Amino acid sequence: MTRESRDTEITKAAGAGATAAVRGRKKRKNKENKTRTVRANTLLNDHPNPHYANNKIKTTKYTLLSFLPKNLFEQFHRFANVYFVFIALLNFVPVVNAFQPELALAPVVFILSVTAIKDLWEDYRRHRSDTEINHMDCLVYSSMERRYVEKYWKEVQVGDFIRLRCNEILPADVLLLSSSDPDRLCHIETATLDGETNLKQRQVVRSFLDLDCEFDPFKYHSVIECEKPNNDLNRFRGYIVHRSGRRDVLCKENLLLRGCTIRNTEEAVGIVIYAGHETKAMLNNNGPRYKRSKLERQMNVDVFWCVIILLVICSFAAVGHGLWMFQYGDKRPVFDVLSPQGTNLSPIMSAIYLFLTLIIVFQVLIPISLFVSIEIVKICQVYLIHQDMDLYDEETDSHLQCRALNITEDLGQMQYIFSDKTGTLTENKMVFRRCTVAGVEYSHDANARRLAMYQEMDSEEEECMSHGGTLPRRESVTSHQSARVVLRSQSTKSHRRTGSRAEAKRASILSKHTAFSSPMEKDITPDPQLLYKVNECSSQMDFMRFHSQPMSQLSSDLSDIIDFFIALTICNTVVVSSPNQPRHKVKPSWKSEIKQVSGVTQIFYLITNRSSNKGCSSLLSSPSAESTLTKLHEEQSSHLEPTFSPVPPCYDGKASWNLEEGELRYEAESPDEAALVYAARAYKCSLVGRLPDQVTVELPHLGKLSFELLHTLGFDSTRKRMSVVVKHPLTDQITVYTKGADSVIMDLLKPLDTGKRQKKIICRTQNYLNLYAADGLRTLCIAKKVSDGEYACWLQCHLEAETAIQGREELLFQSALRLETNLQLLGATGVEDRLQDGVPETVAALRRAGLQIWVLTGDKQETAVNIAYACKLLDPEEEMLTLNADSQVSHVSLVCKSLGLSKKKQINSSSSLSSHNTSPFLVHRLGLVIDGRTLAYALDKTLEDKFLEVARSCRSVLCCRSTPLQKSMVVKLVRNKLKVMTLAIGDGANDVSMIQVADVGVGISGQEGMQAVMASDFALPRFRYLQKLLLVHGHWCYSRLANMILYFFYKNAMFVALLFWYQFYCGFSGSAMIDQWYLIFFNLMFSAFPQLVTGTLDKDVSAETLQRLPQLYVNGQNSEEYKPYMFWMNMIDAFYQSLVCFFIPYFAYADSDVDLFTWGTPITTLALFTILLHLGIETKTWTWMNWLSIIFSITLFFTVALCYNASCPTCFSPSNPYWTMQRQLQEPLFYLLCLITPVTALLPRYALIRKKIPPTLQKTEHRRRHCSVGKKTSGAPTLNSAGNNPDFHIHPSYPCLRAGMGNCFHSGATNM
């Protein structure tokens, strides 16, 4: 109805009806590719939406027909697989083949088959999941039967009507048309989408709100125009056109998304808008992201060098063969290989053919099994990390999640950490601490003592747990409030710390039903003075209401106090429900106009990271905005006086609720909202109900009052404030209540020259805000504005902004700004966010490990600085650089001054270091603090280099008031400019952008949903677990993989070199003295298992030592385990060992009459023994699995050799391997060679390692003895060097940081 009036005005403004029709047709043509039209499927013989996707989902990659070609196509994207297939196919060419073609295919087929089977199994699991989902039941309206019938999810079509019941999961994206709720609301749980367990509400489309009878789909004749399918969970735009021509706007509040669960609503009906793969949930399901680790990039370079080496040795051998053939001239040797036509080949052609033959023979130089082995080792490493109980959080019943399997080694090479503050370093449990109202500060001392009691109980519980005792019983309780706190704390925390795990898990599950509602957050002790004033104000207002007195008789201070608490109560999106039935319908005992729950729900900071844009996508319009405008015109014509009515129309003194105040459950979307609502409830100003068009509160002496909700301007990261426009039930005045960051609200207040009282309040409040921030409290300002005449004009302009097509977001932003000006400051709040357990210790350990930690937060600067000192990010002894600039010019000046100071510090540090003859490891005792506005200047392309130069010279950096976009830009700047490894960690959706930009993203599974976790590579329950994840598991993963890769290169090069030396004795003919079965399966079977075990379980340093000496982490930061020269050293060592393994048997059998394989089989055996002993030298931690794998490899080799030599007398004529190994085992010379050759081959490596020990062995042993003594005498070691010196630097040449020297810290460690 109101929509028609607005459409009429728009039509008149546009001109004549014909012109509007022409424009409409043009507009439809331009937008036909951007919108979709949905009609109801109520026709019997026609489907009006034939081109849209059905609801059947298919997440599998293959079908029975496409599996083989598609899987092979995907595997051939890896260059190594293409190379090995090419080599195998080349072996089928008779003129260049080196092995039996079928046998040469075996390794490639094995590798491809293993990968294909793995992919097939994963795809089969996806297929089973798809089948289960597609065959779930739902109620769909049948046009033929005129009723709802059960159908599978996969049978649902766009345009179908679906009946939804409580606790059912939505099968598709549905537009809500009807609800059994008397307020036409539908409650949903979106945990599967964003991880948030608190209830959200959706409302019926506006034109169906007043539907009295049951919704009949057959009578539905409307057409829906909406946007094309997209993955933006936070937006839905469109309109519904009725048969009468009237149009109603559609928004995200009308859309129910696939995967959500219906709660607290008995029944709802909707029409399917998006189905199947076009739903927003499916469009957001992109799967895990693939990242390439730094070690993998280095490895690819060395693989390239292996290709170069292969080409060089093949070219050398080809040239040698051509020269060797050339010396015979026209007299061809009897063993010469003829061409396919039977003619003699020229030396040049012989060399070319030999080159291709040697490519086949020497193909092992490129490690085909390396890539598969790395994947296997990484999976095993992830499994071991998951099994670490030190990374399990019993309180939340959650453990570490590894969502990216291919970058585990990057955890050991991090250099910069970018961390969020709220929820990451802190608990994200917002506790109301203090407030100031009308310039008067209320310290809430009793509430401070209550919080201190919680902290004391926590420390006592931890102390009791450390001594194996139980919780002490508190007998001396001074008040009922304290007793209640103690009992509740004991009933919850004792379960978490001293009870069984099942009890802890049950308590965690119960607490998750409502976020931000722990006893510490809820049970607020009011300030007596403020409580007295609230009661006095309420009693006076009740008296004036009864006597119909105007509001002007109420004093300004008392008026500000009551408005302050009204703002805390209604300026939010909190949902009210009952804890007795947490996920069922809450029914009042009487039916009235006072409603229970809200239809204005906002989801901000979601996966798609829309919050960083300036557009006001979170500006929520009241669903009755147009009707509000109509009412305003009517009221202005009646000229009503703003006086108190004896009994307001919205208030019924006889009405009583079935729910008592203490039974109400507040489900908030952020901890700040919950803290303020609970604070207001402590002063008897309780939120008891919310509707799309009204909010019900209960005030002392006044009872329940319903504020008509005219408009809501939601919170976002750009505006940093939230406002509600309500009609006051006692004064009939239109009032704007606003809360937000002090940096924003202070700029929106009335000019100071408007009154002395307001000026005094502003000055005092600002002083208190500074004190709150200095105490580490999060601050919010509360303001209001009476907007009777202005609101009607503003609403008219705002409606035009809402209907704009171009620049809609910017118009809405400016429209909101026009309303939120000339505000009257009411007061401010201080909310405490406690540090998580172990954060200071973790930060200190990470800094000692050489990691640079930057904190990027949206909090006030003073608050962030205070928290930074508390968590030891900033040191009181450090000099702090503060960059706060109002313009780009002043920013440049500040940066230049800071740069000069940092250079001066660097000169002083360098001279100090040189005078003490210490290692040049510079640590500048500087800290940098920069606010959001200055950061915007610093990130400019022309200034970012100078800012980065200042920042990198500081020991710690703190960015305050930063937006999500700025966070990601800072991470990208450091990563790209400094070429360093970066890690970003956060808990909220506002951290998603920087988590995705960093090399490694870590999400904290906190209280703000799972958006950060779903975007991360690793998920942690608590920040403190980052220490062990990086310093222990990161170090191990990097060390294991780096040494395994180098060992692979060495092993393959050593085996290929054996064949290369033989070419000097066979005319470079490409012949091999080793049987082709051994050539094919040597790397694939005989030597594969020990290196997998070592790569998975090896520990160069124990976990205790790594955490006690964080400085050892520098090993991975500097890539000490995998330097470029190490590849060449391994190549040289491989060639030397191959010389020993080749020539000792050569000279041993020089004058004997043994055949080729009788000489080649001992060489193969000696090579295997040497390779395994080499691995033994490189192994630092021996376990029973290491011994078993080596024994298994040797046993497997001899078993295959004995069986093969016994069963294959003439398999490959003219060679005859029959009984070769059996004869060798009877010869004493064979055993002598097995003893002498490996020792001689490995002697230089062993001697080289021993030679590197003396310069630092004494220091290492001294450090180890101190660690062991400290462990025996006390809980912490007494270290004279690294342990207590934050500036301690370990030189890269220390053997404790090099491969093979882990035992200098622990000897004989056999634990897994």
Automatic annotation (TrEMBL):
Cellular compartments annotated: Endoplasmic reticulum membrane; Membrane
Residue stretches of biased makeup (Basic and acidic residues): 1-10
Entries under CDD domains matching the protein: P-type_ATPase_APLT_Dnf-like
Domain of life, source organism: Eukaryota
Alphabetized Pfam families for the sequence: Cation_ATPase, PhoLip_ATPase_C, PhoLip_ATPase_N
Recorded topology in the membrane: Multi-pass membrane protein
EC number: 7.6.2.1
Cofactor dependence: Mg(2+)
Bilayer-spanning residue ranges: 79-97, 103-121, 303-328, 348-372, 1045-1065, 1077-1097, 1127-1150, 1156-1175, 1187-1207, 1229-1248
Domain (P-type ATPase N-terminal): residue spans on this chain: 48-102
Active-site residues annotated for this sequence: 420 (4-aspartylphosphate intermediate)
Keywords: ATP-binding, Endoplasmic reticulum, Magnesium, Membrane, Metal-binding, Nucleotide-binding, Translocase, Transmembrane, Transmembrane helix
P-type ATPase C-terminal domain boundaries: 1013-1248
Catalytic activities: ATP + H2O + phospholipidSide 1 = ADP + phosphate + phospholipidSide 2; a beta-D-glucosyl-(1<->1')-N-acylsphing-4-enine(out) + ATP + H2O = a beta-D-glucosyl-(1<->1')-N-acylsphing-4-enine(in) + ADP + phosphate + H(+)
GO MF annotation: an example: ATP hydrolysis activity
Binding site for Mg(2+): 420, 422, 987, 991
GO CC entries: endoplasmic reticulum membrane; phospholipid-translocating ATPase complex; plasma membrane
Sequence segments annotated as region (Disordered): 1-34, 465-505
Binding site for ATP: 420-422, 673, 715, 739, 778, 857-859, 961, 967, 990-991
Protein name: Phospholipid-transporting ATPase
Taxonomic lineage from the root: Eukaryota, Metazoa, Chordata, Craniata, Vertebrata
